[in-house]
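Troubleshooting: if your tokenizer reports a length mismatch, compare your output against this known-good record of 49 residues.
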Amino acid sequence: MSDLSPEQQEAIKDAPKGTYALMLLLGAALALGWAFMFFFMFLKHGPVS
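Known-good structure output:
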């Protein structure tokens, strides 16, 4: 079923760790950006009148 050589199968056996690290970094940056906007920009203006 697979046309990959044993060397190619070995190369793709492990998950790409750099991609997961980049996803974690971008997810953390997004969460920190959201928290900054929520706590320091949105809540600072008080309740809607």
